[in-house]
């Protein structure tokens, strides 16, 4: 039994949950006269999610499926060029609607493809992983990686709607679920202490209530983004754990000798490191830091960092999109549930944080 969850109103678009979403989608298709409907999927979602999604669609408009190889390694401009060509060959025009059915790679890339094709056609996100539900689907960030630098090329442009249906989570492997959980934990740490506390004992979580936890996570992200759509201010709070986390993720992605990390696995490490920095700057207490470190380490496997890894990770920080005027800006937590943005952090302190993580 899925709970009835109300529509969340984001900046100029609705976020629907479960069954409501398909009603909203079909009504929207009826009211808007699209010439063609393109559904962008990757190899996974084509197999597991598309067969669930298609029967819900009520439309006479021609539907075309565009599939690309799954994985972060394909979230690049080459893939976009191929999709733009297919859209063109199949007669895509200004009145085309793109539906992105998949995880963060599909929604990020599909949103970017739609935002740039013919100077922008309408698109809808149907996120199918926990990570994309609580993170990629909210806030209008679309884009691709440039080499191993994450999300270097992109636009902020909102979809016509987002449809979150938790039945797709049945197809998501356990490690991917944990990856998505990292963003939910982050939302609690930066904005909502009682929400964070619900995760302190994962064994006690009733997964029948999980829809409500996802809902609250989306609500938190939306509240932050609505206040600051273009990331001049409070939206930077969402970067907690990501400044170091993205650098770690990029380093493990490009390094042959390392096992590629899932986004949430890298962000979990980033949150521990950046919590240590928050502790050092006296923004959180030792008890708060211990609670964060213990909780995250209980959920995520330890990542092994050798001494030779740290320097290249620090190099990668320079490319972080949140940098301004060449200085690296961190969003740190100021007590659990609150954030302090634009914090400058010295390299020595970052090295200390790595040492503490290893201990």
UniProtKB/TrEMBL annotation:
Cofactor: NAD(+); Co(2+); Zn(2+)
PANTHER family: 3-DEHYDROQUINATE SYNTHASE
Domain 3-dehydroquinate synthase N-terminal stretches: 66-178
Listed GO biological process terms: aromatic amino acid family biosynthetic process; chorismate biosynthetic process
UniProt keyword annotations, A-Z: Cobalt, Lyase, Metal-binding, NAD, Nucleotide-binding, Zinc
GO molecular-function term, one example from the UniProt record: 3-dehydroquinate synthase activity
Domain of life, per lineage: Bacteria
EC number annotated for this UniProt entry: 4.2.3.4
Described function: Catalyzes the conversion of 3-deoxy-D-arabino-heptulosonate 7-phosphate (DAHP) to dehydroquinate (DHQ).
GO cellular component term of the entry, any: cytoplasm
Top-level EC class: lyase
UniProt domain 3-dehydroquinate synthase C-terminal: residue ranges: 180-323
SUPFAM superfamilies linked to this entry: Dehydroquinate synthase-like (SSF56796)
Protein name in UniProt: 3-dehydroquinate synthase
């Amino acid at each position: 039994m899925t709970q009835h969850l109300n529509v969340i109103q984001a900046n100029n678009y609705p976020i629907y949950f479960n069954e409501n979403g398909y009603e909203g989608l079909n009504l929207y298709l009826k009211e808007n006269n699209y010439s063609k409907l393109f559904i962008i999927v990757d190899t996974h979602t084509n197999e597991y999610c598309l067969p669930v999604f298609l029967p819900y669609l009520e439309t006479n408009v021609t539907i075309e499926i565009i599939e690309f190889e799954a994985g972060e390694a394909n979230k690049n401009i080459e893939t976009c060029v191929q999709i733009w060509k297919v859209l063109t060959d199949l007669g895509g025009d200004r009145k085309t609607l793109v539906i992105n059915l998949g995880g963060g790679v599909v929604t990020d890339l599909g949103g970017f493809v739609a935002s740039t094709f013919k100077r922008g056609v309408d698109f809808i996100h149907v996120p199918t992983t926990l990570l994309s539900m609580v993170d990629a689907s909210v806030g209008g960030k679309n884009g691709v990686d440039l080499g191993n630098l994450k999300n270097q090329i992109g636009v902020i442009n909102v979809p016509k709607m987002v449809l979150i249906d938790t039945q797709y989570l049945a197809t998501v492997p356990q490690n991917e679920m944990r990856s998505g959980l990292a963003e939910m934990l982050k939302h609690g740490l930066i904005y909502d202490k009682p929400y964070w506390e619900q995760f302190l004992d994962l064994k006690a979580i009733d997964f029948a209530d999980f829809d409500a936890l996802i809902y609250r996570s989306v609500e938190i992200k939306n509240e932050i983004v609505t206040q600051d759509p273009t990331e001049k201010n409070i939206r930077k709070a969402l970067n907690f754990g990501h400044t170091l986390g993205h650098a770690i993720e990029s380093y493990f992605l490009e390094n042959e000798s390392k096992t590629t990390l899932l986004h949430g696995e890298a962000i979990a490490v980033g949150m521990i490191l950046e919590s240590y920095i928050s502790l050092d700057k006296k923004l959180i207490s030792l008890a708060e830091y211990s609670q964060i470190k213990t909780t995250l380490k209980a959920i995520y496997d330890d990542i092994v960092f050798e001494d030779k890894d740290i320097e290249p990770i620090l190099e990668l920080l320079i490319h972080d999109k949140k940098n301004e005027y060449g200085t690296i800006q961190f969003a740190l937590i100021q007590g659990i549930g609150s954030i302090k943005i634009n914090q400058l952090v010295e390299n020595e302190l970052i090295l200390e944080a790595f040492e503490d993580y290893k201990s």
